[in-house]
Amino acid sequence: MKEQKIVVLPGDGIGKEVTTWGKKVLETFSGKNGIRFTFDEALIGHTAIEATGNPLPDETLQKLKASDAVLFGAVGHPKYDNDPSLKVRPEQGLLKMRKELGLYANLRPIRLFDELIHASSIKPEILKGADILFFRELTGDVYFGEPRERRDNGNVAVDTMIYSKMEVRRIAKRAFEAARTRSKKLTSVDKANVLESSRLWREVVQEMAKDYADVEVEHMFIDTAAMKLIKDPRSFDVVLTGNLFGDILTDEASQIAGSMGMLASASLGDQTGLYEPIHGSAYDISGKGVANPLASILSVALMLDISFGLKAESAKVIQAVEQTLKEGFRTRDIADATTATDKIVGTDAMGEKIIKKL
Ligand SMILES: NC(=O)c1ccc[n+]([C@@H]2O[C@H](COP(=O)([O-])OP(=O)(O)OC[C@H]3O[C@@H](n4cnc5c(N)ncnc54)[C@H](O)[C@@H]3O)[C@@H](O)[C@H]2O)c1
Ligand SMILES: CC(C)[C@H](C(=O)O)[C@@H](O)C(=O)O
Ligand SMILES: [Mg+2]
Questions:
Q1: What is the pLDDT of residue 337?
Q2: Looking at ligand 1, which residue's alpha carbon is closest to its atom 44?
Q3: How far apart, in whole angstroms, are the C-alpha atoms of residue 151 and residue 159?
Q4: What does the pLDDT read at residue 340?
Q5: 81, 159, 251, 336: which one is catalytic?
Q6: Ligand 2 in contact with 260 (CB < 6 A)?
Q7: Is the CB of 41 within 6 Å of ligand 2?
């Protein structure tokens, strides 16, 4: 039996509540198909700052580097959101983790379950059949560019938007390869009409397109993409974009799937894979038992498939989600106000419905 080490990082707020269910899903598959999962938990974010003063303690980093996969919840706390002057911040833990583990490719599938077509604020006839796979670059861009500093006695602030050809090439390669297995259409999103780093981005994608003659490549400006995503979501299939644009566009795209609570992601590089919902710590609902655990559960479906090659098990998780939604069970965020048949459940009841079907 092959042992696979999973590090679980619940983090802050609803991160803890939803990760419990992601982990339980993994446990149901442990010991089957020749793979046994072992679990280790570690600190990150506000919780880690409170315990150690560091948002990503060395002990956590060492465990992550030795892991086969990571199940992450979320970080963030209103204390820091409300006080921009604080120097040590939960999000630094997440960013450092992505950088240290070399997780440059963030895959964010936008899967609209038919049952949730009315949960979205977009008209059903615009939405039906929407299915998008985002490739968000995750370790470059203005998130990491230097210099980043205050100048002029703190009166001026600088961040640096920067990309190298190598960084664009490696994420673009993954997106092109994925496009080949899907509808052979790739939309690369940038702001090349203004930004030098975007012109480099476009240049690299154009060069690479010659090697992928079977893939139709479209270049789109970020502002247009933000508009078209809502106007005509079905016109997108694989979307390739940078760190900042990808962050914003995928929160927008979560509304195609009905809720932030539905969006899973995989962050990949050359070492371990990290799986997490795209949402944050959501302190507005934390501790109330109402958070949607499906993004964490669907992140585990990605883990089973991508990190462990357990395709049938991954499909089983997705089917369990689909079936539970068909039965009418909804957490608050995906409930349809116009339908009396929705059965509103909390985090744990939703999690249990899924586990029973595995
Ligand atoms: N990957 C991460 O760890 C991550 C991602 C985004 C934001 N954050 C952090 O989280 C904190 C809160 O940020 P925010 O409020 O802007 O974004 P958020 O994603 O935490 O919440 C946005 C909205 O979506 C709702 N929501 C999110 N996840 C949900 C779920 N599973 N079920 C039901 N509803 C859900 C929330 O209630 C809220 O109304 C901030 O400190 C931010 O920095 C962390
Ligand atoms: C919390 C924050 C640093 C993070 C990001 O901007 O990447 C989050 O919004 C995400 O989408 O994972
Ligand atoms: Mg985000």
A1: 65
A2: 280
A3: 11
A4: 65
A5: 251
A6: no
A7: no
State which ligand 1 atom lies nearest to the alpha carbon of 285: 37
Instruction: Check if 247 is active-site.
Output: yes
In a domain, 48, yes or no: yes
Same domain, 192 and 101: no
- Please identify every residue whose CB atom is under 5 Å from ligand 3, which is an ion: 247
Give residue 137's pLDDT: 98
Of 156, 321, 167, nearest in space to 242 by CA: 167
Report CA(138)–ligand 2 centroid distance (Å). 9
Among 87, 202, 196, CA closest to 145: 196
Q: Is residue 36 part of a domain?
A: yes
Query: 190 and 100 share a domain?
Result: no
Q: Which residue's entry shows tokens 């703190």? A: 154
pLDDT value, residue 338: 67
If you write DSSP's letter for every residue of 184-252 in order, what string do you get?
Answer: SEEEEEE-TTT-HHHHHHHHHHHHHHTT-TTSEEEEEEHHHHHHHHHH-GGG-SEEEE-HHHHHHHHHH
User: Domain count of the chain?
Assistant: 2
247 and 276, same domain (yes or no): no
* pLDDT tens-digit readout, 314-336: 999 999 999 999 999 999 999 97
Name residues of the chain where pLDDT drops below 50: none
**Sign, Cα dihedral of 256, 247, 188, 211:** negative
Is the C-beta atom of 94 inside 6 A of ligand 2? yes
Shortest-distance ligand to the CA of residue 248: 3
Does the ipTM surpass 0.90? yes
Residue ranges making up the domain that contains 320: 1-110+264-358
CB 35 less than 6 A from any atom of ligand 1: no
Choosing from 14, 72, 75, 95 the residue with most ligand 2 atoms within 8 A of its CB, the one to mutate for a pocket test is: 95
- What CATH number did the domain enclosing 19 receive? 3.40.718.10
**pLDDT, position 341:** 74
